[in-house]
Amino acid sequence: MEKLQEIVPPGLLESGLDYAMQALIAILILIVGWTIAGWVKRLTLRAMNKIPNMDATLKPLLSNIAKYIVIIITIIAVLSEFGIETTSIIAVLGAAGLAIGLALQGTLQNIAAGVMILILRPLRVGDFVEAAGTSGVVKEIGLFTTQFTTLDGLFLSVPNSSIWGGMVKNYNMNQTRRVDLEVGISYDDNLTEALTLLETFLKSRDKMLADPAPAVMVMALADSSVNINLRCWVNTPDYWAFVCDLKRDVKVHLEANGFTIPYPQRDVYLHQVEKTS
Predict the structure, then answer these.
(1) What is the predominant subcellular site recorded for this chain (predicted)?
(2) Model pTM?
């Protein structure tokens, strides 16, 4: 140590040791703060899960905000350890924010779009939607991206600006949905009897809503069949099961009562032309 003091100028060794100690303390503060930020995020999410009727859309957003607040406080504490004043920190953050804002305009658009999605709620966690050229169940709405799970189990992450700037079709937003099923019968079948049969059949279906009233109507006189449309309303959660069962049962019911669902067909007439001499 005495030899090192002889080589190093007086005061430089003490200053170096002080800076090394400050750097070590700053690293410890950063590690502890980052760990606490993770704990705060998990505790915030756990606390919101215990709140009854808490919107699942806001849970990941609020927990992430709590995490980022702790991280910002940690960074300020680290800078303060090196003697940087708060006013200087604010000035540096302002300048850095301006530079980052100019460099990351697309990212800021995603943040703004994420805020608008959370305020206006065109979609929520758990909804099945079509947006930004994709479809799936909303898993999480973040500040930058929205995460989806497709019907075949794939994970999709879509920028919020793409969703906010396009059309969103939400299949779960309304409480009820209209069912339209078109079925064709043969031209040789009795149309009046078919309409009466299908109307009685449709009104007997479970999970069908009485208001609006169901309707059975002729939609088209097609090339090979008379197309009849069955229309009714059901609750949104019952839609897919109701449609699948209706398609199966209407075919069985028509055939059991002697009606025919014809294949597309075309009549060809051959005319014999006599040869001329």
Answers:
(1) membrane
(2) 0.61
Contacts of 178 (CB under 8 A, 6+ apart): 231, 232, 233
Which residues are CB-contacts of 267 (< 8 A; sequence separation ≥ 6)? none
Same domain, 142 and 180: no
Q: Are residues 149 and 190 in the same domain?
A: no
Q: Which of the listed residues 135, 152, 170 is the one where a domain comes to its end?
A: 170
Query: How far is 125 from 148, CA to CA, in rounded Å?
Result: 9
Render pLDDT for 66-102 as a digit per residue (tens, 0 to 9). 888 888 888 777 777 666 665 666 666 666 666 665 5
Residues 134-163 pLDDT 10s:
899 999 888 788 999 998 999 999 999 999
Give Rg (Cα) of the chain: 34
What CATH number is attached to the domain comprising 163? 2.30.30.60
